[in-house]
Amino acid sequence: MLEILVLLVFPGLVILAACTDIFTMTIPNKLCLALVAAFFVAAPLAGLSLETIGWHALTALIALTVTFALFATGVFGGGDAKLTAGIALWYGPSLGFEFALLAALLGGLITAGLVFARAYAGYMTYIPQAQWAGRLLSREVGIPYGIALSAAAIWIYPHTHWFQSVVGF
Description:
Order of helices and strands: HHHHHHH
Number of strands: 0
Strand content: under 5%
Radius of gyration: 17 Å
Helix content: over 70%
Number of helices: 7
Distance between the termini: 19 Å
Oligomer: single chain
Shape: elongated
Largest sheet: none
């Protein structure tokens, strides 16, 4: 069961978050709750102590506090804040900073790319017919930051104790 949670559920939920964010500009609450629930199922199966689980929970709470402050200022979406906390719960204090730094760097690249694409969308000879692509190129909507969060989470994931304990590196 731990193998399924580690190799399928966590990465699947994170990838699903990126997909829903790019297509709908929202990250469902159920998805973030599923990340949290999966952690609390996986943690005892992996032999994490209550103290370690507490440190992971504290990391998630700190991440939620910081990202909620960003949400309150209009810089971050609410779904992005909850997704960040859900991923931080899995990574804990050992990889939380690396995740945040990589997510910020990837988010900056995605933001710069979308700002550039939006600035030159009027000069495009091909106009996307898909509603989600048009919305992505619209200047009236925000940046789907869930893509950066998910990409950072997947990028770092092979270095986690979760992945290494199951794969055996």
